[in-house]
Amino acid sequence: MNLHVSRLYLLLLFGLGLAAAASLHMGLRIYDPATVLAALRGGTDSDALIIVSLRVPRTLVAAVAGAALGLSGLLMQVATRNPLAEPGLMGINAGAAFAVTFGIAHLGAASLLELGALAAFGALAATIAVFGIAIAAGDAARPATTLLAGVTVAGMLASLTQLLLLIDETALETLLFWLSGGFADRGSDLLRLGVPSLLAGFLGTMLLAPALDALRLDDDSARSLGVRVSTVRLAALALGALLAAGTVAMAGPVVFLGLVAPHIARWLQPKPAMATLAITTCLVGAIVALAADIVARLIVAPGEAPIGAVLALVGVPTLIALLRQRREAVL
Amino acid sequence: MSAMAAGNRLALLGLVLGAGAVLAAGLGSSFLPPGRVVAALAGGGAPMDSVIIWTLRLPRVVLAVLTGMALALAGALLQRVTRNPVAAPSVLGVTDGAALGVVAFLWIFSDDANALTVSIHWQPLAAMIGAFGFAALVALLTLLDPGGRSPLRIILYGVALAALAKAAVTLMMILGPIYRANQALTWLTGSVSAAHWSDAATVAAGLALSIPALVALRLPLRQIALDAESAAATGLALGRTQAALLSLSVLLTALAVSQVGAVGFVGLVAPHAARYIHGQFAPGYLVSTALIGGLMVLGADTLARIIAAPLELPAGALTALVGAPIFLWLLLKGRRAHG
Amino acid sequence: MADPFARLRAASAAYNRTRALDDVTLDLPAGAVIAFCGPNGSGKSTALRLMRGLHPPLRGTVEIAGRALPEWTPRALARAVAMLSQTPEAPPELTVGELVMLGRFAHRRRFAGPSDADRAACQRALAATGTEALRDRPIGQLSGGQKQRAWIAMTLAQDAPRIFLDEPTNHLDVAHAFEVLELIRRLNRQEGRSFALVLHDLNMAMRYADHVVLFCDGRIAAHGPTRQVLTEERVQQVFAIRCRIVQLAGEETPVLVPLPNASAADDAGLASAAE
């Protein structure tokens, strides 16, 4: 690791700390640092209650979800060699949404933890279906096949979800909250789904990193370096799916972050090795998620703006600015 | 891909589409068997049948087929020009721009009592303005880009602006009146249920106008499958061809979504289905793409009418349900030819 | 040289600010087979790409057949000069016949199918490269050598009097490499077509080129008739190797024998073995 990378990490960590601190302070009520510190030290007044039971979990969920989604997007983009790849393309969000809708409409699921488990199950089932089809269609190592299987399964599941919603409107109320995705009122017990998947995904990425670096070459060159191309590609996609499944269980389908965070990370670190790029992407994802969440609280106060919309408002100008600075949008 | 000649494959697809249209025209609250449909179409049959077919059912069937064709063609052009198999009309910001146009229209022209202050017939115009506005923005950003104009950058700008439009739509729907939100939701799903002959005629005219352009562009469309250098070395004016194909793709998408709303999936999958069934370099590839697109939307709309009858569902909710299983089957079957 | 088929005038070129060609002036004589030789990164391919209008010059001008490059329309230029780049790509399901027909782009009429002339040109190109039997095979299923010959066929089908080939013997075994270069010479001698080729094999250049341009560090180290350019001293100087040129009994063309230079052999600890 050279000086430049470590300085970048320090900067990003500083930014993450700042964003997290801001996330604890800002909202419908804006607290001063003394109040926040008192609450974190175990204060018991009503302000402290709000901070500890609402703001802290929300901040944690946003940071974990942002890191996981960014990393998931990075894995998908590298594994499919497609800069447009993101978790949503693999049917993950659609699978989670269908499972949750079905659970609410027909299985009587109601608690957030139940919904989270359903979402994780749906996400993983959709991913397995996508991989199954890609493998059965012959060469699973061909990225285009996997992507096509992904978008097709995603489209079908989204269609089924819409059908369920059209036929059974009573499910709509609970669902709209969940389906819009977000970090508010998600509860800290959901972190039990998100944190392990982030850790597992991150460790897995570190283990795969050398092979993924080789995968940036063409398949034959990678193979001749001793990389099992299909295995590595499937493993990377599986890790990406796991990360996204953990997030969707916590925060519902959050779009756009998985696409934009890796692109920002690549801009910060133009010629990165996979391992360092993964860390940068996690940090960037977390910062962007926190920033978007803060904006979501403020922009239509006293209401909350949907996180997907805010992410777009925050992420799009960034993405455009990045595109205008970089000559080549390479992987 | 069978050994059948390209012409026969097209004829077969056309036949299936024709039969599907006759069947679809017969389905509804009162079922008409194909024989009576054909009689009514030919100008004979019972007067009542004629009225049902010509004024109620046929505009819808024709509109479904034509919009499916336009979307499928738009997708085929886009995938070739960007050399990206997951490029779909929605990535260029066109669909979401149209959605923004419609939602803004509903928002601006509603009074306090939730009634529209202008005729609803202006809604397609609003969609058109939104679609072209966002397409123009994407083009502008790309042209002003100091780092070159590769197709990938066009897509990334498109994706970015599409997300922005989607965000604006979401915010407007939250802040706007709830009744308008529902109306906008129906539009966003895409539906052909309110079809009139005038809608179908608009799409038909647009498609007819695009045919000479498609014919003129058919050779460049093949040539662009080569890498950029080889394409240029064989005489293709690369930049101009890309611009022409992208513009045509935007036009076709805007044409379709302004009439029926944001029907998804067709533009993404119909070109691939045509690739597997027909071959993307066999003569008539675009024709087969169009036929398959038409079949997909027609199938979706027909299913939407009968699956929860008497309730009618928006066709856009079902295009994926109709198209996905067929496409997955093609994907699995195609492994010998393309694996 | 009265009528150069391509001409660079004080041309410089760069990739992302890395200078690749530095103030080069070059006239390519018409009606000859010209080889571009030189170490990797010396500017050979860049010179070809510049002359074919695939890369814009930073400074200087490019002329083809006496007309400045910007005056040509893309189609007219493609009818005047064909070029095969180093790593061409096409969808794997494209058949050889379809690929070769793509070479006819600049000749085809906009609103009609292929004409008899188009079909005849494709047929000639397939026959000349020995790829007739592969006509209906998807290029994704070809071997490296077959694919290279299919691409050469596409370039020939373009029917241009001037042809640029960037490493045409890439992926080819010795027999096929000879075949392609014999074909180039035949097309040159019988049909008067001019060729400019990037060649790495100096012996192939020695045998088949009428004229050699030797590149070094983005500049031209030497150019002129083959035997005058490919001398022991020049090759040693440009490639920083040792080299001997020997005449084999019964062979008209001399053979160039490259040898590792003394210091490189020293580095590898092989000095004694080499002597």
Automatic annotation (TrEMBL), chain A:
<feature type="transmembrane region" description="Helical">
    <location>
        <begin position="234"/>
        <end position="261"/>
    </location>
</feature>
<keyword id="KW-1003">Cell membrane</keyword>
<feature type="transmembrane region" description="Helical">
    <location>
        <begin position="88"/>
        <end position="109"/>
    </location>
</feature>
<feature type="transmembrane region" description="Helical">
    <location>
        <begin position="48"/>
        <end position="76"/>
    </location>
</feature>
<dbReference type="InterPro" id="IPR000522">
    <property type="entry name" value="ABC_transptr_permease_BtuC"/>
</dbReference>
<dbReference type="Pfam" id="PF01032">
    <property type="entry name" value="FecCD"/>
</dbReference>
<feature type="transmembrane region" description="Helical">
    <location>
        <begin position="147"/>
        <end position="167"/>
    </location>
</feature>
<keyword id="KW-0813">Transport</keyword>
<keyword id="KW-1133">Transmembrane helix</keyword>
<protein>
    <submittedName>
        <fullName>FecCD family ABC transporter permease</fullName>
    </submittedName>
</protein>
<keyword id="KW-0472">Membrane</keyword>
<keyword id="KW-0812">Transmembrane</keyword>
<comment type="similarity">
    <text>Belongs to the binding-protein-dependent transport system permease family. FecCD subfamily.</text>
</comment>
<feature type="transmembrane region" description="Helical">
    <location>
        <begin position="115"/>
        <end position="135"/>
    </location>
</feature>
<feature type="transmembrane region" description="Helical">
    <location>
        <begin position="305"/>
        <end position="323"/>
    </location>
</feature>
<dbReference type="InterPro" id="IPR037294">
    <property type="entry name" value="ABC_BtuC-like"/>
</dbReference>
<feature type="transmembrane region" description="Helical">
    <location>
        <begin position="273"/>
        <end position="299"/>
    </location>
</feature>
TrEMBL record, chain C:
<dbReference type="GO" id="GO:0005524">
    <property type="term" value="F:ATP binding"/>
</dbReference>
<dbReference type="InterPro" id="IPR051535">
    <property type="entry name" value="Siderophore_ABC-ATPase"/>
</dbReference>
<keyword id="KW-0472">Membrane</keyword>
<feature type="domain" description="ABC transporter">
    <location>
        <begin position="6"/>
        <end position="242"/>
    </location>
</feature>
<keyword id="KW-0067">ATP-binding</keyword>
<keyword id="KW-0408">Iron</keyword>
<dbReference type="InterPro" id="IPR003439">
    <property type="entry name" value="ABC_transporter-like_ATP-bd"/>
</dbReference>
<protein>
    <submittedName>
        <fullName>ABC transporter ATP-binding protein</fullName>
    </submittedName>
</protein>
<keyword id="KW-0410">Iron transport</keyword>
<keyword id="KW-0547">Nucleotide-binding</keyword>
<dbReference type="InterPro" id="IPR027417">
    <property type="entry name" value="P-loop_NTPase"/>
</dbReference>
<comment type="similarity">
    <text>Belongs to the ABC transporter superfamily.</text>
</comment>
<dbReference type="InterPro" id="IPR017871">
    <property type="entry name" value="ABC_transporter-like_CS"/>
</dbReference>
<keyword id="KW-0813">Transport</keyword>
<dbReference type="Pfam" id="PF00005">
    <property type="entry name" value="ABC_tran"/>
</dbReference>
<keyword id="KW-1003">Cell membrane</keyword>
<keyword id="KW-0406">Ion transport</keyword>
<dbReference type="InterPro" id="IPR003593">
    <property type="entry name" value="AAA+_ATPase"/>
</dbReference>
